Automatic annotation (TrEMBL):
Keywords: Carbohydrate metabolism. One of its GO terms (biological process) is carbohydrate derivative metabolic process. Signal peptide: none annotated. The lineage of its organism: Bacteria, Candidatus Aminicenantota, Candidatus Aminicenantia, Candidatus Aminicenantales, Candidatus Saccharicenantaceae. The keyword Transmembrane does not apply. The keyword rRNA processing does not apply. PANTHER family: GLUCOKINASE REGULATORY PROTEIN (PTHR10088). This is Glucokinase regulatory protein.
């Protein structure tokens, strides 16, 4: 299925288009056409022409849709490069039906854009080296490092703290000789000196909190809540370069500098970093982005790679390159800190076998990608099995310890990307979410502590409520933010339990036909066959329950060692298998961990595998059309804009097909405003119908409703469109609509 989205190729010069700007200016005119009577001449013309879409549907534009079209044009982001279709994955949804390995190779081929951009950065590494140097200097000066993001980049920020920073220092703490030197030179609180924060705090790790992302105010408040001051190092990461909460954070940090006597942009630029993934020319039309791009007091690191493998899915290439670059800068700074007072032998004990070179690390990405591609045949088998599991109304359980955050991030990001239920709370009487994540822990409190490396952090209502009430003028955003604040407090961790404990075994244990996926990072593969290990117990449990099992092992084993381990696991699993039951699928990703104590390369490779796999599963299940995110959850202003454009594009693409014209005649293309009006009506319709509609996507419902009304030349309601969607699905409906 193709649509009208522009195919932008990475590396080509990006030019602003006057037509695009003119299109935005026409929005008020479109709205007048919706709501006001036209001049008499136009009335005569319309008497002979088919009725407009909204009159045909009997639909009036809602106040919220009208507000979005008139007042929220700064969130109509479909012109951004990250929102375009990538030519390499154009026909992904068709290819994956018959050739899963080929579809996976299509997805991984887009990661080649990352390698190209990293080569460019390695050739001109000034800003990367400046960032690494300033991290070091900030720690030596007793300052904080504050990394902030939203959505996928917010999870990146959490990963920097809880996967890389805290575990590294905690590992040194176990070596008393090393730790005494660290404590003396860097202080006993070194693990607490880096704060990874996301819009909505720790609760937002689970699922998005509506209304927060669209407010610059919350970025300002969270920075103040953490006590970040002038002189602290602030790293703000946004996939698209337009996220309001992230921009609010960096501009607030800049204000702290500008309000001080003798302000110097040269000085603030060394402490304030804005990392993003869209060309500047695409971002300049948006006021909030332009305020950062044209600010001399902020260092900008533009990591644009091109369109994403799935249109707008910035959790993939955009966040991958940002994770790798920020992680490399962080690890470089740690090496430079330690080399100031540790001997070469002591540095080896800390995990640094030689001098750490962040530029060389950038160039090693190609090797990671090559190893990932080598694993495609095994990944394909896993993808097929997991898709079959969900199609058969069964569930999956992912199990990880060291890889917990990387696994958890991919699991939670499936929900907004593909319109799935979010992770179940402990109060759910039965499983609804297709996936759950477990980790070795005795209860939910220990699981959270293992996950974060510190106590759970929420948003304090007494700090945030009054500013939301008094400083958010937009009534829709104010209401959404206040509602989300109720779900963001310190008590939210009580609602989620991902421990490998009796509670979960009893309430959500595996059933025949379910799937267990074990994910381990080096050197955890050494414990897989230890009967006392949690991995071994998990493996035995799922095989005994006649559930499917997958092992994903990221290690530095050589080929001979890998073959030997694979055979041992096969032999171990046979004693649990029932007649006809398949043994475990084993996916091995061999990545060197020498001179990489953060395990940055292993986590990055694992992230790429998980992202491609989960995307392929959903494409296999029909939740992707072509390479477009037709099941996106429109939970913020950016995603409402994406959803609107997807509806408009897919409908108009269908209307232009010769097969459609032959069967139903010529029809004027629908406008962005019309698509938005139908979308908001779908959102309202589905809001209170979770029991019936389940994981129905508003985009898919809207497309079918519009096309079906145009076919029948009469109004089609949401109920009728929902019945069609549930019976045949969007992909099949579009295919049938374009048949001769």
């Amino acid at each position: 299925m193709e649509n009208r989205m522009k195919m932008s190729r990475p590396g080509k010069k990006d030019r602003p288009r006057a037509a695009r700007a003119a299109g935005l200016l026409l929005i008020p005119t479109i709205l007048v056409g919706f709501l006001l009577a036209a001049e008499s001449g136009r009335q005569e013309q319309q008497a002979q022409a088919p009725p407009g879409l909204l009159p045909l549907l009997g639909l009036e534009v809602s106040a919220e849709s009208l507000d979005y079209l008139q007042n929220k044009t700064q969130f109509h982001l479909h012109t951004l490069l990250t929102e375009q279709r990538h030519p390499k994955t154009w026909n992904l949804s068709e290819r994956i039906k018959t050739d899963i390995p080929a579809a996976l190779h299509m997805l991984f081929s887009v990661d080649e854009d990352i390698a190209d951009r990293l080569e460019e950065l390695a050739a001109e590494p000034r800003d990367l080296l400046l960032l690494a140097s300033e991290i070091k200097q900030s720690i030596l000066a007793g300052r904080k490092i504050y990394i902030y993001g939203c959505g996928a980049t917010g999870r990146l920020a959490k990963q920097m703290e809880s996967t890389f920073w805290r575990p590294f220092w905690n590992s040194l703490r176990r070596d008393k000789a090393l730790w005494s030197k660290v404590e003396k030179n860097l202080g006993p609180d070194i693990a607490d000196r880096l704060v990874g924060e996301m819009t909505g705090a720790d609760r937002a790790l689970i699922s998005s909190l509506e209304g927060f992302e669209d407010l610059q105010l919350i970025g300002r408040l969270q920075l103040q809540d953490h006590g970040i001051k002038k002189g602290d190092l602030v790293i703000c990461v946004t996939e698209g370069g337009e996220t309001s909460s992230v921009i609010g954070t960096i501009l607030t940090a800049l204000e702290q500098w500008k309000e001080s006597p003798g302000y110097s942009p040269e000085e603030s630029r060394r402490k304030l970093y804005f990392i993003y993934n869209n060309p500047d020319d695409r971002l300049r039309p948006f006021d909030r982005s332009r305020a950062v791009i044209e600010e001399p007091g902020i260092t900008r690191i533009n990591l644009t790679t091109g369109p994403m493998a799935i249109t707008g899915s910035t959790r993939m290439q955009a966040t991958t390159i940002e994770t790798y670059v920020v992680g490399a800068a962080l690890q470089s700074a740690v090496y430079e800190l330690l080399s100031g007072f540790l001997s070469p032998k002591e540095l080896q004990r800390a995990g640094f076998s030689r001098r750490y070179d962040p530029v060389a690390t950038l160039r090693e990405f190609n090797r990671i990608l090559s190893r990932v591609k080598n694993a495609v045949p095994r990944i394909a088998a896993w993808t097929e099995l997991e898709a079959e599991t969900y199609a058969g109304n069964h569930f999956s359980t992912y199990f990880a310890d060291k890889a917990l955050i990387t696994v958890f991030i991919d699991s939670t990001e499936r929900s907004p990307t593909f319109r799935l239920y979010p992770l179940d709370t402990v109060n759910e009487p039965a499983r609804r979410c297709w996936i759950q994540v477990w980790t070795p822990a005795r209860d939910k409190h220990q699981a959270w502590l293992n996950f974060l490396g510190r106590p759970f952090r929420g948003l304090r209502e007494d700090f945030y409520r009054s500013p939301f009430e008094e400083q958010v003028d937009d009534p829709y955003l104010r209401r959404a933010a206040l509602d989300s604040l109720k779900k963001a407090g310190d008590n939210q961790h009580e609602l989620y339990d991902f421990s490998f404990s009796e509670f979960n075994l009893t309430k959500r244990g595996p059933q025949p036909g379910d799937l267990g996926v074990m994910v381990c990072l080096a050197p955890e593969e050494n414990n897989l066959l230890d009967p006392a290990s949690a991995f071994s117990r998990f493996m035995s449990l799922f095989l005994e329950k006649q559930a499917g099992l997958v092992l994903v092992s990221v290690s530095d084993l050589n080929e001979k060692q890998t073959v030997a381990l694979e055979k041992k696991i096969q032999d171990y699993g046979r004693k649990f298998l029932q007649s006809g039951q398949a043994g475990p699928i084993q996916v091995f990703l061999n990545l060197d961990r020498r001179n990489d104590p953060f395990l940055l390369k292993q986590n990055t490779g694992l992230k790429m595998v998980l992202n491609a796999h989960s995307t392929a599963v959903m494409a296999r299940l029909g939740r992707v059309i072509g390479n477009t995110m037709t099941n996106v959850s429109p939970s913020n202003l950016k995603l409402i804009g994406r959803a609107t454009y997807l509806i408009q594009s897919h409908v108009n693409d269908c209307l232009k097909k010769p097969e459609w014209i032959k069967k139903y005649g010529h029809r004027a293309e629908i406008s962005y405003g019309e698509a938005n009006a139908v979308l908001y009506d779908s959102i309202e319709f589905l809001r209170d119908k979770q029991a019936v509609a389940g994981q129905t996507a508003e985009v898919a419902l809207s497309i079918i409703r519009i096309l079906e009304a145009l076919k029948q030349k009469k109004a089609v309601g949401n109920e009728e469109a929902l019945a069609i969607l549930q019976q045949v699905g969007l992909a099949e409906y579009l295919r049938q609509s374009q048949q001769p």
